[in-house]
Amino acid sequence: MTPGARLSAAMELLDPILAGEPAERVLTRWARGSRFAGSKDRAAVRDLVFDGLRRRRSLGWLGGGDTGRAIGLALAAAEGSLDRLCTGDGYDPDPPTPAERARLIGDLARAPEGVRLDFPDFLGPALHAALGADFGEVLEAMRHRAPVDLRVNTLRTNADAATVVLARDGIRVASQPLAGHALRVLENPRAVAASRAYSQGMVELQDVSSQYVAETAGAEPGMTVLDYCAGGGGKTLALAAAMKGRGRLMAWDANPRRMADLPDRARRAGAEVLILSERDHAALGPVCDLVLVDAPCSGTGAWRRKPEGKWRLTPEEVASYPPLQDAILDEAATRARPGGLLTYATCSLLRAENEERAEAFAARHPGWLVLGDRRLSPVDGGDGFYMARFRAPEGTPAPRS
Ligand SMILES: C[S@@+](CC[C@H](N)C(=O)[O-])C[C@H]1O[C@@H](n2cnc3c(N)ncnc32)[C@H](O)[C@@H]1O
Asked: What is the per-residue pLDDT for 401?
């Protein structure tokens, strides 16, 4: 496909996504029906679609509307390739009309803040309150692609050996200081999934903030650890590495299908994980040295990776998380042993899901000690995350309700 044809495809695909269809579904359907598109074409079209979604409001403002064509034209204009790509020849998009061209040279600096920085207006006050002086830098970062980070799986290897094996597949990396075993991919990120280092379990794909959370959650060799919202198991595997493969590591998720790949992933990583059934979960008493709660949240810290989330969120959905997070924390806390640790984390930027939940937990459980908290954002090098750590009171735990 020519670069113009790729842009045409992205413009076309954006329309159903803007109308509410999940981007992955639209892209998969297109790839299946477009045998002419090679892997490089598919990757390029995907990048254009996701770039367009990350900057949907600002590009739509410049391009003259919330449509695939407007966003695609503005994307091409921003990269200085408007006239080269939009020729109307072959599969290229039609050239901009005089009206479109006039919009495209608009001054984004004069657009409202939510347009300029690409976020939904209803979240403006909460984002300002949470981010303070970092507001502009964080929201600007959220308009761009996230770097690709790897976690060196210390159950299998070390950073030096992983770096050498990655280099054999043309993947150049550098250490990323926020987490102890993080490597940032500097070249060839698309080659990671098919690389030897990845297939042999030497590295996992994991954002550096996510690595930081798992690394500082409090897991140590020999402990009994429960990953309470395990999902795909990214943090479970990082906990296994922190435990150096010694102790008892359990994974639970209210939606067990989310953990479907975990046994395979654990095998590849050389980690031993006990996946709890409903019955195991119900029967599990206050025996854990550490319970990690990586709670469901608005995902506002992960907008670079999941840009659709930015535009799908509603005030009602955002308001639904705090009560759910409180309930999950309270339930998870009953699995911590007396004197055990509880770590709460979200990939949200919002105080209502973060600091306020930690404060509310402390208020509901006066015997628990607050050990500290930390908010992370792209200013620190990775996705937006929050974590708070607590220690259970010594003595007999309260019976479960
Ligand atoms: C942020 S995701 C977890 C991501 C995962 N820890 C990782 O690192 O890949 C939150 C998870 O919480 C799960 N969840 C939702 N409600 C829950 C509940 N009441 N108890 C346990 N897990 C729950 C969801 O199914 C989802 O997989």
From this structure: 57
Residue ranges for the chain with pLDDT beneath 50: none
- pLDDT at residue number 218: 97
pTM attached to this predicted model: 0.95
The domain locations on the chain are 3-112, 149-206, 209-391
**Residue nearest ligand 1's atom 13 by CA:** 229
Q: Do domains 149-206 and 209-391 have the same CATH topology?
A: no
Helix axes 262-269, 234-242, angle to 10 degrees: 30
> Which residues lie with the beta carbon below 6 Å from any ligand 1 atom?
228-232, 234-235, 253-255, 258, 294, 296, 328
Atom index in ligand 1 nearest the CA of residue 227 equals: 6
Distance CA 264, CA 178 (A): 28
Predicted confidence at residue 400, as pLDDT, reads 63
User: Which of these CATH numbers, 3.30.70.1140, 3.30.70.1170, 3.40.605.10, 3.30.365.10, describes 149-206?
Assistant: 3.30.70.1170
Residue of 206, 253, 346 to mutate, ligand 1, most atoms within 8 A of C-beta: 253
Q: Is 157 left (phi over 0), alpha (psi -120 to 50) or beta?
A: beta
Is 118 labelled a binding residue?
A: no
- The length of the chain, given as a count of residues: 401
Rounded distance, CA 344 to CA 2, Å? 48
Q: Is 253 annotated as a binding residue?
A: yes
Q: Give the Cα separation of 155 and 153 in Å (integer).
A: 5
Looking at residue 106, its pLDDT comes to: 87
Q: Closest residue (by CA) to atom 1 of ligand 1?
A: 296
ipTM, two decimals: 0.99
**DSSP 8-class letter at 190:** G
Give the model confidence (pLDDT) of 309-329 as tens digits. Answer: 999 999 999 999 999 999 999
pLDDT of residue 395: 80
- How high is the pLDDT of residue 32? 94
Which CATH superfamily includes the segment(s) 209-391?
A: Vaccinia Virus protein VP39 (3.40.50.150)
CA of 77 to the centre of ligand 1 (A): 40
Q: Residue 65: which H helix or E strand, with range?
A: none
